[in-house]
Every structure is written in structure tokens, then in C-alpha cells.
Amino acid sequence: MNSYDIFRKLTRGMKFDHNRFKGDLKKIGVCKTKDDDQSSVTVNETKEKEEEAVDEPESTEENSDEDDVEEDEEGQVSMLSDIQIGGSEATGKKEKKKKVISKEKQLRIHQQEVNHQRNKLGISVWGTDVPDPVETFDDMIVKHKLSEVLVSNLLNQGYSEPTAIQKQAWPLMLQGREILGCAPTGSGKTAAFLVPILNQLGGPQRKGFRAVILAPTRELAKQTYRECTRLSEGLGLRVHIISNVNKAKEKFGPKSAKKFDVLVTTPNRLVFLLQEDDTPPIDLSNVEWLVVDESDRLFEGGARGFRDQLAAVYRACTGPNIRRALFSATFSHDVQHWCKLNLNNVAMVTVGIRNTACEDVKQELVFCGNETGKVLALREIFRKGYEPPVLVFVQTKERAKELFKELIYDNIMVDAIHADRTQLQRDNVVRAFRERKVWVLICTELMARGIDFKGVNLVINYDFPPSAISYIHRVGRTGRAHHQGRAVTFWTMADKPYLRSIALVMHNSGQHVPEWMLALKKARKNEKKKLSTKHPERGHISQGVLYEKLQKRKMKQMKGKSKRLKMMNGEATPKGEEETAGIYLLSTRCEISEQLARLAF
Ligand SMILES: Nc1ncnc2c1ncn2[C@@H]1O[C@H](COP(=O)(O)OP(=O)(O)OP(=O)(O)O)[C@@H](O)[C@H]1O
Which residue intervals make up region (Disordered) (predicted)? Predict the structure, then answer.
């Protein structure tokens, strides 16, 4: 090994302009001698010949850029001269010199192109042998044998090309790789996992469930079920959602259990069925794909989380071919750690900057002073004019009811959804909101994740979100699928401890926030945890809620009327009085507002 060889080894991977530093190289005795050239020719010629046997040598324009090649790393420095010398030696004729790119170089160029494509899409990947992202639906058909029926279903949905997460997750999952996918809200994660799974299931096999998709809420499970049904049209697959565990028990009788291929459900319902005595009515031993949507939410521990349920589902998926896919808009180190430990050859895909709000949402913070100020600010937004549908987030179901009562007389088609409402009421409210019969929907955290209401233009955080993660999901109900959206967040002094983390999320997604907010003291980890589980104490939404006032006035009037009747007849009993009062109250409630009667609050 001469000095030049040592120099090449030491500078491997570095760009070095040999021409420019020719003098210096001579001084320190690092020069290419004729012998060096000759020896490297032999090595590379053999290498080239081996490669020619595998691949047809290509002549490419890229290789004609000598400077570029000269500045390249070790292997390529000698390659240019090798090719030229090798070419003329082999032929001995004046024919045009054929420039051949070595396999190594081809791979490097290809990798550069792939990196460029990933950078452009904001994709970062972790894992070994991650396949290249695709560009188009046609790519998926040609390179990954995606079913044309599926592509036609995608086109029927109005999708013209895959989104960034789909471009990377589809080829990965089609190779059967386990995956942790993290991409902004509204970026098409649902289709990112549904498409490869449906493609791999192919058609019905009457083996029972082969794919299980878990979602944290019933509303999200229903939405995923609908999308799955739409995308699987024409494939013959049967998709099922557990909406009622008792009905499900009947449905999964020994005869019918095998007819379904895909199950969409919340973890609680599934675990309830799995834990039925003796023989569970549901069998997951043939499951090939288990998807955990909103994975960071499902991985949360404690009473609110679903860790135990997830563990029970994993245990029930006993098939040898089980693969898992976890998706969420927000990233959690716990989930990442779990994936690295438990998944086989996992690949992690992230789109954009982790844990930032969607950049298509214009975000504002509005200081309201106190609770009365919030009501005024809300009315001001509505007075200035707004384009329905609008989502308004509050921190508890009690506050949802209170705000509903406050707004019901404002000539706004308003409704509320929260855990105290029945399943039927919740379904009806969601349908009415989708059909634009309800303009303003007041909701709790229940609707913060995953729900895809088309065309929501405005999200109002009436109550400040309890964490940055909650903020990201809430504001992500607008600005979906590259549509522009707007999010307004009210705050009072009670929200100051949370302010910095939300301001930071806004700042990271390109929004303007005052410097002083970013300079606020950072909350400690345990403080943050406490804040996210314990809501700040807030006064009533309105000191004298109009609805309550009207109720009281009516009751007073009715009592007076009843008293007068009693005095006139001298026979009315207190019981009769109460009944009359009840009927009167009900009828006046109906008169007060058609909406109120419909919503049966
Ligand atoms: N390739 C595509 N082209 C155009 N629109 C798409 C594409 N894929 C999905 N969409 C649409 O984008 C919207 C958001 O998709 P989806 O609900 O899957 O988002 P998400 O990433 O799961 O969001 P979240 O994190 O809030 O759950 C949906 O209306 C969906 O129909």
C-alpha cells in the first residue's frame, strides 16, 4: 500500500479536488503514479466485468461530468480513468468511448434521487431496507402489483395521487413490513394502512377475521369502517364493525363467524368479547394484520388509556403471520420504544416535523380575560360572519351542555356531542353535522382525534387544550387533505401554565406568536402530566344562563297560574299541580325552540 492508497483510505467519503491541491499533494508525496492507475484498472475492470454479467452496462450522460466524478469518493476517483483506459484497451478502435457506471455508482445515484424525493415530501425513515417511496398510483400497480380495483376505488374517492405517508407506507406494508407511521393530521393515514391490507387480503377466504383495526372512539371506528367499505368495493371482502357487543355475540355464532375478513372496533368492545367465559365468540387466530390507529392514545397508561386492552388483543392474535402497523399524527417515545422492542424488523416513517400542527391551519390565540369574555369573543366571531361547519371544543361534558344552552337562542344551528349522550344521539348529531344541518358542533376531547368532517373551516378551542398533543389533534379537524383551515384558541389567566407549549407548537408550524409567550417558563415533566390530566377550574360559561332564566320564569308563571286556579276551584291537589307544571314546562320548552325539543336536552 503506497502513500496514495493510504490517503484514499483516510479521505474516504470526502470530496477532494485533486487538481486544485495538486501542488500540495506532490509536496507530501501523495500522488497518483502510473502504477497506481494501472493497478486500479485491473481491479475495477474485473469488478466491471462481474457487474456486466448482472446488469447491462448503461452509458449515461451523468458520467460525462468529469469534475463531478473526480471529486467523488475513493471508488469513483479511479473509476473514470479506468473506464476510459479500459474502453480503449479493449477495443483498440476509434469507436466512441462507452462510459459505464458501476453498480455501486448506480445505487448511489439512485439513493440520492430517493433521498431527494423523501426530502421534498418531508419523509424520514428509520429501519433497514426501506423500499423507495412510490410516485403515483400507476407506480403502485407496476412496481408493487396493487390491485387495479383498489386503484379505481381510490380514483373514485377523488384521490389523484398518493399522499406522502401513503407513498412510503404502501410499499413497506405491501412487503409485509411492520411499521410505525407518524404523519400530520388529515394527511391520509387511514388509506395509508387500509390500501396495502386490503390488497394483501385479496378476496374473501371464509377463514374469519384476517385484519383487525383498532380505534380509540366509536365515532372514529365507524368512520374507518365506512372508508374500509368504500375502498374494498369490488374485492368481495366483508368488513365488520362491533357496534353492540350483544348483537356481535349472536352474529359471531359458529356458522357466521368465518364470513368476515376485516374487523374495525374500539379495544374495549373487542376485549369484552374476548373475555367471555369458556369460549370467546370471536376468534383472532387467523389475523394477519393488526392496526392500531391513534397509537399514542391507545398506548396511554392509567384509567384513560387502553394498554391492558391492547395487551389482551395481542395475546388473542395467535397466528404465526401476524404483522402490526401503528399510526398516529403525534409521536410518542413510549410507542417508538415498544415498537423497537416488539416488532419484527420494524420500519418507522415520519412525515414532516414530529408533533407539530398541520401547516394548512391558520392559528390564532385570543386573550379573553375571563369566562364572560369568552362568550363575548365567541359571539363576536359568529357576528362577524363565519362559514359553517364549525367545531367548538370545551373541556368537559358539563361545559358542553352549558355552552349549548348559552348558544341555543342565538339563531345558530348548534348541537353538542359528549359522552353523556346516547349512542343514537351521538350518531344522529354526527350525521346532522356531516349533512350541514348543524352548523356549530360543541364537543369534548371525544371528537379531537381522527374524525374527518369534510370542509370544517373553523375550529374554536373555547377551553384551552390540556396539552400540546391535544391541541395538535383538535386544530387538525380543519385544514385536512391540503384544504386551508383556521383555528382560534381562547385563553384566560387560568391557562397560563399551558400557554408556552401551545405557543411553541404554533411557532413550529409557521405561525406568528409573541416572543414573550415563547420565553415563558417551561413546565416541568410532572407539571405537564398533572396539567394534562387535571383541568383548570373555570367559572360557569355564563353567570345567568338565559335558558335557566327562562325556565325559572316559566315555572314561576305556571305556579302562579296554578295557585289562582286552586283558589278559584278550591280543589286542586299538590300532585296535580306538579303534573300540570311538568306538562306546561315541556310544552313551553318545545315552543321556546324547535331545536331544543329535537335535541331533548
Ligand atoms: N391520496 C389522497 N388524495 C386526496 N385526498 C386523500 C387522499 N388520501 C386520503 N385523502 C383524504 O384526506 C382526508 C384525511 O384523511 P384521513 O382521515 O385518513 O387523515 P389522517 O391522517 O388519518 O388524519 P388524523 O390524524 O386526523 O386521523 C380524508 O378526507 C381523505 O378522504
Answer: 32-105
